[in-house]
Amino acid sequence: MQLPLKITFQDIEHSDAVEARLREEASKLEQFYDRIVSMQAVVGRPQHRHHKGDTFRIKLQLEIPGAADIVISRDPAVTGAHEDVFVTIRDAFKAARRQLQDLTRKRQGHVKQHE
Asked: Domain spanning 6-108: which CATH class is it, in words?
């Protein structure tokens, strides 16, 4: 990455463990696709439940040269899941990895062209 990973916590206190996991997953993405210009991660907790576990939201934005930004959002309102922040992080980076794979296939011409 040309610029460092920018991590923001919303409605949640800073956690060294969460930050370390985000940096670890980001470095894996960088090993997979080394042309990432910048990456931003926003981790939040949109709800505060007292009787059941809190859900977590994560949004990733990757800037790639010559392509539209890749934006990944894992929102519990959509899935009803993500009560563990580390599972949310894993799912978001898995989706980002998949989009980077698709971008690589398109750039290498391995995608079928429809008539």
From this structure: alpha beta
- The pLDDT tens digits of the residues spanning 60-84 come to 999 988 888 889 987 765 555 667 8
Name the pTM for this structure. 0.81
Instruction: Spell out the residues 6+ positions from residue 93 whose beta carbon is closer than 8 angstroms to its own.
Output: 25, 26, 28, 29, 60, 72
List, in sequence order, the alpha helices (H) in the chain: 16-32, 76-79, 85-108
Say how far apart CA 25 and CA 27 lie, in whole Å. Answer: 5
- Residue spans of the domains in the chain: they are 6-108
Question: CA 6, CA 9: separation in Å to the nearest integer?
Answer: 10
- By DSSP bridging, strand 38-44 and strand 6-10 are parallel
